[in-house]
Amino acid sequence: MAGFRVCRPDGSVAIDADYFNLALRAKGSLSLASGGEQSLWWGTLSVQGDQAIIAYRAEHPVAVNRGVRKEGRFEYLFQGIHSSGPIAVDWWLFDLPQYAQHFATAGKMLIRRPSDQQLVFDSRNKYLKVMDFVQEAAPEKAPRRTLYANLPAVIMVNRAWEIKANQVVQSTLSSMLWVNGGEVFSQHRVTSSRRAGPYDWQKYIYGGNACHMVIDVENY
Predict the structure, then answer these.
(1) In 10 A of CB 170, how many CB atoms?
(2) Which superkingdom does the taxonomy of this entry point to (predicted)?
(3) I want to staple 20 with a disulfide (CB 3.0 to 4.6 A). Which of 10, 108, 120, 212 is the partner?
(4) Are residues 11 and 94 in the same domain?
């Protein structure tokens, strides 16, 4: 038997008491200021989280290189490319509704799952709103660009990579994302380069297709 539901005019479900959406828990800014070699910059963000995911905006190519959960915290390692210096990254962390920031100051509506009283909706929260899911068919030679009506941020789902080598040099190319206004860009960029070893002749390794989500952070 279905529990409490709120539906939109088109019939789609906006709130369902049996399910919950992730809500905004924290937001902030990070400067990728370590490194600088080959125009590569690094920065680490450590935040409290339970089932958290992170979205970000940056005006230069940036990727989440690693995400690790450690004793109730998440540690994210960001990598970016910029020839002129450190990179500014704005980020938003989404988690279970009970951990979310409260934005409304007067009144509230709480909805709990009937089976276990788990909080599934709090009207004071700002929830994750997905605008798009993008999967690249192959490494992009030119930046892929998409314009969105609302202010976008990106969530890296799979960071694809490839290694190319000949008898002289080996390069690793990785998928990077960046945002300018309402446009989201994606492209593979060189993220490491070294002299090829004696066994690198014409080596090619491909690490799958890049994919990312685009979310709405207008007024978040």
Answers:
(1) 17
(2) Bacteria
(3) 120
(4) yes
Contact 43, 33 (CB under 8 A): yes
Single residue among 99, 122, 145 that ends a domain in this structure: 122
Cβ contact 154:130 at 8 Å: no
Which of 94, 122, 150 terminates a domain? The answer is 122
Of 138, 140, 111, nearest in space to 123 by CA: 111
What is the DSSP secondary structure assignment for residue 39, as one 8-state letter?
A: G
Number of domains in the chain: 2
One digit per residue, the tens of pLDDT, for the chain of length 220 reads 456 777 778 877 777 777 778 999 999 999 999 886 778 899 999 999 888 999 999 999 999 988 888 888 999 999 999 988 899 999 999 998 888 888 866 667 888 887 788 888 888 889 999 999 998 876 666 788 999 999 999 999 887 777 777 766 767 778 889 999 999 999 887 777 766 666 555 555 566 778 899 999 999 9
| Amino acid (one-letter) located at 157 | V
